[in-house]
What we know:
7 helices; elongated
Amino acid sequence: MIAETxxxxxxxxxxxxxxKKDEFYTQLTDIEKELRHYTEHFKDQVxxxxxxxxxxxxxxxxxxxxxxxxxxxxxIATCYKNQSADEFSQNDAEQATCLEYAGDKNSNRVPxxxxxxxxxxxxxxxxxxxxxxxxxxxxxxxxxNPPFSLFREYVAQLVEYDxxxxxxxxxxxxxxxxxxxxxKYGRVWVGHNFxxxxxxxxxxxxxxxxxxxxxxxxxxxxPGICWFTNLxxxxxxxxxxLYKTYYGHEDEYPHYDNYDAIEVSKVKDIPMDYYNVMGVxxxxxxxxxxxxxEIVSSNDFRRNANVPYKEHGxxxxxxxxxxxxxxxxxxLIKRKPQ
Length: 338
């Protein structure tokens, strides 16, 4: 009964994302766990958190309280404010706000209110608005939790404006053709915390939650969360240790019906002696080292012309069968010669 309750609750939270009810607040502990791997990249940089209520955002809190430690040049935060009372945020009377912080002025190492520049935006604070794009152009690195329902469009904007970024998304975003293309060509990769169940803060209007603290703040779990980035990280240079062998165990690695590749259903089972094409789960990206493996397109390994061309380049849906039985999404990879 407990497991079923959790399943329904997680499904409800995921549904909220799909319905563009996206005002979930990332907790400080989760931000700290990821950001500690990138501290050297923030020196003398302008950081922009463009999907964060500056008054409630733990992203703004993290960067303002670590401003001097990170050596930041400036911190900017804006968020979307809905003008309709029947939407999730219910901020029908509020204006979109922009906060800017340029560091400690009175030497107390605390971002005091008088040190933070506050102004109202003319528009609604949508990341696509003219005002927010102008702020984006000033920024060096964008760090935030964007609306999952607009993830494709959000990432496309960051790429268009050639920005470095570290953002939260759902693991299934890997399968979006717009996102997978960027991953394949090495323009985006996953961060350190991958495929996690993360607990988010929820607005008061949300009716389902996992727990409520002493102050009345509500929290709910969302599975399959990971970070996406284009910031250099040592993780991408770590080699995956392989110990399984293909030759002599061919029966453990069946071929796809429609693609000239073998199925490797678990990342730990990637064989050390096989250099042709293999299909692996999307969780492989958590261990992906571009110096050790190459991501290839499934379209180049179709067995015949009747196999549909896949714009995303993944083995996916009913075409990814083995002996007539469909598999889940697979990424095609090849080991690089050692």
